Write the structure tokens for this entry.
Amino acid sequence: MCSDTSRTQNTLCSYPGCRKRVWQDPDGSFSSYCGKAHQDAMAALNSTGLCKNCSNRPVYVENGRPHDFCGRRCAAEFKSHGNQPSSPPVSRTPSTICRLSRCQRPVFIDTNGIPSQFCCKGHRRDAVTEGEIEACMNCNELPKAMLGLGGKLSDFCSQKCSQAVFDHAPTILPVNEENSAYRKVADQFIEQWKHPTSKPTVVQIWKIYGDKESNDKFARYKLDVERRTNEPGGNTRRRWHGTIRACRLGDENFRQFCTNRPCSLCDIIRSSFKLAKAGARTNFGRFGAGIYTSATSSKANDYVEEVGGSPHKAILMSNVVMGIPIKLTTNQPNLTQPPTGYDSVVGEPGGDLNYDESIVYNNDAIRPRYLVIYDHDQSPRPLLGAMPSTPRGYII
């Protein structure tokens, strides 16, 4: 979002079809877009290709790496046909031909000249029920809107559904197991479990939606760090945080935040992390009065405490703006901010630590993004070759 004095507070977003005013950056200049979502959408245009088998849908993108196919079904079909497409490729573009694979009709174009992904509303619903596209996180009936041709998906099918969620924020919404976000979060949780105990079982995942003020503060802090350090996205990382849950938020259909005084989980989801509460639980921080997270999910698990009667455990995955971190191996408990020239602290294993820690010293440097409900047996990890029974839920 480069500075341009030709733009003012009345300039409209450059994203096709958007009628919102542009965002004002921390330096007082005005962006070309209403927000980061539309900036990313434009950057994603034509960034990925179409499935090698069906030539209809964009390829699946995992951790930034595009695959050859849109999903496992097309990958299997391609292999079963001797590495030949199951049907002759159809000359089609996601912006001109209905995205439902069995349809060849042109997409619907609205009065503003903006094309849909589908020819009609019925095929939008069919694409969801037939498992060809992820459902809107709010209505669960219509497909998620695509932000740009071949770009990433929004969480919602429309501005109406998006607004309905943020009007009730802060809130949490369940993430279906078929959702790509579920796979990514669950995989990271399992893969980053480093302690020599049995692997946990993911029971349910929820996405956390903060209110506009909280989101804007985080976005502005991230942009400020990005500009100052030249680190893309301010070097934002996903990190784990374990805390006290004094209710059953996240269990089955429990979505209402509690007001129980010891419930740090609900407090964090409602209003994010607070430096003022640093050290209130342990009276000790190896690296001072900061907000602590870890890339090791099993370390964060050590701080999970269930006092609300749930049979499961709950942990938070957060987005943390690390900027330029300093790596430390020995305790520095008197820190109240990172050393000069740095934006965060990373506690490296090998000195006073067995597992990593990430610490930030600004409330706006971190926001909770996912709530993971899981089961965990504290028994030692089984020996190689052992065949434990498969528990309920998602496990690798």
